[in-house]
């Protein structure tokens, strides 16, 4: 069991590191093309394709890790991706900073990386050792167990309530959206572990693909992953990515560990000290991810104009049928009121008196000029 846990942890760490490098490579490709006169599209560059291949390799490593180690160990190791992204951003993105800003912007990030590493070490050291073969019989037995059925009932009711408030009551709080993501993600990781475990057993010679439960888990895995990505996309349109990363990691990890411990009985027979140290590792990793992401730069929205609806009295004017700029019918009446000729004399444009200057012989000769007086008739 210890060897399998170690293999699973190494695969997960390797996968998250490669995914982080791949995403930063693709980001570098987009930035370089945006800042140059290169007319090529991003998908025509070797750097972007290298990032895509590394991304697929990393996701494959994370997927395979679920077949060897308990779900409660693999899920929190996604903090490795946050750590790697922070280190890559600090080292390879050449940002100009003042000495007084270093403490505020970077020291807390380094402290967060250290805490996340300590938390990851505790997670690997005190992870549960109960890991069984992912055969079709075992998965079907866990699927109909009363603890998991009770968890599914609570999760479905909670998901429906959150979805109602989100869709009907416009409850766009980040906690509401990311709780929807976490509930879907808990089912995703449960099904991923089942599918990965059955595939590995099939490759080893113990065929599991003839069990209907395999295809049920596969369909659930794909469906929950798609809807999870949909809610994440909606959250990214409202909130900053760093806030989504920290809050999403905390909520998703907590709910996924709960689902894994109920479905796969990860902590069954574990000592209380091991469980407490594992929980401490999770808390330290949560704090580290929070410190890493809280100092990211946030985009400041630019408002090029002030909406007239926000000005006092404008909504009342529109409600009474009054318009800010009436339709104009007279010729040469741009910016004037309608029917300009019928307005009383007190509202006609005032004409300034023209002072005639006498040019003496001492003045510098130049081109004579006239000042034209505009009358109302013109």
Automatic annotation (TrEMBL):
The yes or no answer to whether the keyword Cytoplasm is present is no
- Localization per record: Membrane
Q: Which residues cross the membrane?
A: 6-26, 47-68, 74-93, 105-124, 144-166, 173-201, 213-231, 243-265, 271-292
One Pfam family linked to the record: Mg_trans_NIPA
Q: Does the keyword Transmembrane helix apply?
A: yes
How the protein sits in the membrane? Multi-pass membrane protein
Q: Which UniProt keywords apply?
A: Membrane, Transmembrane, Transmembrane helix
InterPro entries associated with the record: Mg_trans_NIPA
Q: What is its main location?
A: membrane
Q: What PANTHER family does the record tag this protein with?
A: NIPA-LIKE PROTEIN 3 (PTHR12570:SF14), PTHR12570
UniProt family annotation = Belongs to the NIPA family.
What is the protein name stated in its UniProt record?
Answer: NIPA-like domain containing 3
Q: Which organism is it from?
A: Rattus norvegicus (Rat)
Q: What is the lineage of its organism?
A: Eukaryota, Metazoa, Chordata, Craniata, Vertebrata
């Amino acid at each position: 069991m210890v060897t399998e846990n170690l293999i699973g942890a190494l695969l997960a760490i390797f996968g998250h590191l490669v995914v982080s490098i791949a995403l930063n490579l693709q980001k570098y490709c987009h930035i370089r093309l945006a800042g140059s006169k290169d007319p090529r599209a991003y998908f025509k560059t070797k750097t972007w394709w290298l990032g895509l291949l590394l991304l697929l390799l990393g996701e494959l490593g994370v997927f395979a890790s679920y077949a060897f180690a308990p779900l409660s160990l693999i899920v929190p190791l996604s903090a490795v991706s946050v750590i790697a992204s922070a280190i890559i951003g600090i080292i390879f993105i050449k940002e100009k900073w003042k000495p007084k800003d270093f403490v505020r912007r970077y020291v807390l990030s380094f402290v967060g990386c250290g805490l996340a590493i300590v938390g990851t070490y505790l997670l690997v050291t005190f992870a549960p050792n109960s890991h069984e073969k992912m055969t079709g019989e075992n998965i079907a037995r866990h699927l109909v167990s009363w603890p998991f059925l009770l968890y599914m009932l609570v999760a479905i009711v909670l998901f429906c309530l959150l979805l109602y408030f989100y869709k009907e009551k416009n409850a766009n709080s980040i906690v509401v959206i990311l709780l929807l993501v976490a509930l879907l993600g808990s089912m995703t990781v449960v099904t991923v572990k089942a599918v990965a475990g059955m595939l590995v057993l099939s490759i080893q010679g113990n065929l599991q693909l003839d069990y209907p439960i395999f295809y049920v888990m596969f369909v659930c895995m794909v469906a929950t992953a798609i809807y999870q990505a949909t809610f994440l996309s909606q959250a990214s349109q409202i909130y900053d990515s760093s806030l989504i990363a920290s809050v999403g990691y905390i909520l998703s990890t907590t709910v996924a560990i709960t689902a894994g411990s109920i479905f796969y009985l990860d902590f069954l027979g574990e000592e209380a000290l091991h469980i407490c140290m594992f929980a401490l590792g999770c808390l330290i990793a949560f704090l580290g991810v929070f410190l890493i992401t809280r100092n990211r730069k946030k985009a400041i929205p630019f408002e090029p104009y002030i909406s007239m609806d926000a000005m006092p009295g404008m909504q009342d004017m529109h409600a009474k049928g009054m318009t800010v700029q009436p339709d104009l019918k007279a010729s040469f009446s741009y910016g004037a009121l309608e029917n300009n000729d019928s307005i009383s004399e007190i509202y006609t444009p005032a004409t300034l008196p023209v002072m005639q200057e006498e040019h003496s012989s001492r003045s510098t000769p130049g081109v004579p000029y006239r000042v034209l007086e505009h009358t109302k008739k013109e």
